[in-house]
Amino acid sequence: MAVKNLQDLQTYDEEKMAKQIIFNEPKSKAIAFNFLPGQAMPQHGHPHKNAFVFVIEGEGICSLDHIDSAIQQGDAIHCNPQQKISIKNTGAASMTVYVVLSEE
C-alpha cells in the first residue's frame, strides 16, 4: 500500500501548468495537474485509455472534441479513448485537477 499527501503535490510553475505523478502502475496512472490563472493543457488524446478528471479546486473550461464546458470544484469528467481533451484555468485563482488514466 502507498499513501501520499495530495496537498504536497499542489505545486505551481509560473511558466506552464505543473504535472505531478501520484501513482504509476502498469495499467493505470494517477496524475495531479496544477494551473495558475490562464494556464492550459493543450488538446490531446489517450488512445486505448479512459481518462477520469476530478476538479479539486478552481474553475475553468474543459473541451472534449472541441465542445467546451464550464468546470468547477467538485466536477468529474470522463474522456473516452476516442475523444480529445483540453483544460484551461479561466478563474482568478489556482486550479487543481486529478486525472486517472485506465486502460480499456
From TrEMBL:
Single GO term (MF): dioxygenase activity
PANTHER family with a match to the protein in the record: CUPIN TYPE-2 DOMAIN-CONTAINING PROTEIN, OXALATE-BINDING PROTEIN
Family matches, as Pfam families: Cupin_2
Residue stretches in coiled coil: none
Gene3D superfamilies in UniProt: Jelly Rolls
Assigned keywords, A-Z: Dioxygenase, Metal-binding, Oxidoreductase
Record organism: Planococcus koreensis
Protein name: Quercetin dioxygenase-like cupin family protein
Residues in Cupin type-2 domain copies: 34-100
